[in-house]
Specification:
Largest sheet: 10 strands, mixed
Number of strands: 12
Strand content: 15-25%
Strand order of the largest sheet: 3-12-11-10-9-7-8-6-5-4
Structural class: alpha/beta
Shape: globular
Mean pLDDT: 82
Helix content: 25-40%
Number of domains: 2
Number of helices: 11
Low-confidence stretches: 1-62
Distance between the termini: 34 Å
CATH class of the largest domain: Alpha Beta
Order of helices and strands: HEEHEEEEEHEHEHEHHHHEHEH
CATH topology of the largest domain: Rossmann fold
Length: 384
């Protein structure tokens, strides 16, 4: 999300705060947020400036006056305060989650082999956490590979843990932002690195296989977390953004070990989402596949419906709305908002945060979303 902020959003933001933009719209190289009482600063670097702006807008050749630079954090803070986020409570009479079929139960394969840890590397040591990178041998029967997990370990025992699932691309900037935020506030975090789908244009069947293997990998990480002596296996949370949010919605419906699940910028009905999303990579691959097979959008969507069985809407009845929260962008066209709203209905109308943004511009609400999500996780993972 952070690494893919649209040029149009950057241009609008730059115009609002008086920063000149390049012809291509790639301008804002540093944006600071001051989230009021939380005093949390977040930095986004979009280092794609034309040669005439070498040094950056905050460097020696800056076009901003000292007064404007000093006022910038407060102006953006005002923007955050006035975003008009809406926090919807859970339905007053939430329905019960339907039991999982035996084949999808988290304990359906009691003879699963133990997870082999290939490497354990310390990346960072902070007062409130130690960041370790683990490589776990995947149980994927088709391709030998490793599952990479960045584990934010707390300096105490019996701690709750949040499994954090990533967006579809980038260098894990937004995921790391949330991981550090949670870890500094008493929640261990296991950030699971993405499983790449490959550079070739994926077929509908390949997309479904990828989703299915992601669920298997994430279940394996849950198995591994249960073996960690410093963690409380009965207090496992789940958090995901965008594609990570879609995966979180899937896992929450397929694994009852999850005590609290947050799916951000997610939706159900993947055939529709993949057929109508405005995300650039999806658009490019969709056009390529339709061109190769002489398909219309309607035919492409139908082909997806015939192949995709791993869809949040199809497992939504197994999600417990009392342990789930959604975060949706009301102007989202990457994961169309009405498909997130449809997923909410099928999940039993869980607690939901509505952002007055699109998919990428939701970055402006990160400090607010951090705080709301932390409160939700604390409420559901307390005790121990």
């Amino acid at each position: 999300m952070v690494s893919r902020v649209r040029a149009s959003v950057l241009t609008q933001t730059s115009t609002l705060i008086g920063i000149p933009t390049s012809a291509s719209g790639r301008a804002v190289d540093k944006v600071y947020w001051n989230a009021g009482a939380d005093v949390s600063r977040r930095v986004i670097r979009q280092v794609k400036l034309p040669p005439t702006h070498v040094g950056g807008y905050f460097g020696p050749r800056s076009n901003l006056t000292g007064k404007t630079r000093a006022f910038l954090p407060f102006l953006l803070a005002s923007l955050l305060v006035t975003t008009g986020c809406i926090h919807l409570s859970m339905d007053k009479s939430p329905r019960a989650a339907q039991p999982l079929p035996e084949a999808n139960s988290p304990g359906f394969s009691g003879s699963r082999p133990p997870t082999v840890v290939r490497t354990n590397t310390v990346l960072e040591v902070q007062k409130k956490y130690t960041l370790r990178r683990f490589e776990l041998d995947s149980h994927d029967p088709t391709t030998p590979r490793v599952i990479v997990v960045d584990y934010y370990q707390l300096p105490r025992s019996n701690s709750p843990v949040v499994m954090l699932l990533p967006i579809s691309g980038g260098n894990y900037e937004p995921e790391t932002l949330f991981a550090r935020y949670f870890a500094k506030r008493g929640l261990a975090v296991a950030l699971v690195h993405r499983r790449e789908i490959g550079h070739e244009t994926p077929t509908p069947q390949a997309i479904n296989d990828w989703l299915k293997q992601n669920v298997a990998d994430n279940k394996q990480v849950l198995d591994w977390l249960e073996t960690r002596p410093e963690l409380d296996a009965k207090r496992i949370g789940l958090f995901g953004i965008s594609m990570g949010g879609i995966q979180a919605a899937l896992l929450a419906g397929l694994d009852q070990r999850i005590e609290a699940a947050i799916a951000g910028l997610a939706g159900g009905d993947l055939p529709f989402i993949l057929s109508h999303s405005t995300e650039k990579t999806i658009v490019r691959q969709r056009k390529a596949f339709m061109g190769e097979h002489g398909m219309t959008v309607e035919q492409f969507e139908d082909a997806l419906r015939q192949n995709i069985t791993m869809d949040p809407c199809l497992v939504a009845e197994h999600v417990d709305p009392k342990r789930t929260m959604l975060v949706l962008g009301m102007c989202d066209k990457v994961v169309p908002f009405h498909k997130g709203w449809e997923l909410r209905r099928k999940m039993g109308r869980p607690e939901t945060v509505l952002l007055p943004t699109g998919h990428y511009s939701a970055v402006l609400c990160i400090p607010y979303v951090e705080r709301v999500c932390l409160n939700f996780l604390r409420d559901h993972l307390q005790g121990g």
